[in-house]
């Protein structure tokens, strides 16, 4: 008799240690992930409730590119302090990323059910990824900001612009957190 591949993979996934740079659960999405992982038809493989970061421009994906990452709202003073400490000639980007969630589903019907629920609760950019081994739904919020902020050790924007960016980034993070709460309110 063959073993249940979905439950085998789910058990293995939930035993894994956190490999993210943060090295712990993102508290604003932890409750939703726990709810999903308790369901017999779903389990999470990665998640982020949203973040603000300063990152070196690169075509490669490497851990050393991150200058600063916040998983909460920021202040003008925080961003200015970090910008003042940048002493290299790299092109540095400011980014505000929305929430994202990857969930493995037992069946295509389960994936479609969750996809439809996500759409109803404001997750505009969502999709189902199917392969021979598993069915994954990717839930993305759409509110993001990204632009170059430092080049050759010089901050490219003034304080007035930074005030607007801080305010908008914080507002967009709150929007992401609201999407997480709305999805959590529904029974999966």
What does this protein look like?
This protein has 188 residues and is an alpha+beta fold. The chain has one domain (5-185): SSo0622-like fold. Helices cover 38% and strands 27% of the residues. The protein has helices at residues 5-15, 27-38, 76-84, 108-120, 159-185, and strands at 42-48, 51-56, 66-70, 92-97, 100-105, 125-130, 135-140, 145-151, 154-155. The strands form 2 sheets. It has a 5-stranded antiparallel β-sheet with strand order 3-2-4-8-9, with helices on one face. Strands 1-5-7-6 form a 4-stranded antiparallel β-sheet, sandwiched between helices. Helix 2 (27-38) packs parallel to helix 5. It is elongated and about 55 Å long. The relative contact order is 0.18. The mean pLDDT is 90.
Query: Which architecture would the CATH scheme give at its second level?
Result: 2-Layer Sandwich
Tell the overall outline.
elongated
Count of DSSP strands: 9
Mean pLDDT: 90
Radius of gyration: 19 Å
Number of structural units classed as domains:
1
Helical content band: 25-40%
Write down the secondary-structure element order: HHEEEHEEHEEEEH
> In angstroms, what separates the terminal alpha carbons?
30 Å
User: Number of DSSP helices?
Assistant: 5
Unreliable runs, pLDDT <50, ≥5 residues? none
CATH fold node name: SSo0622-like fold
CATH class: Alpha Beta
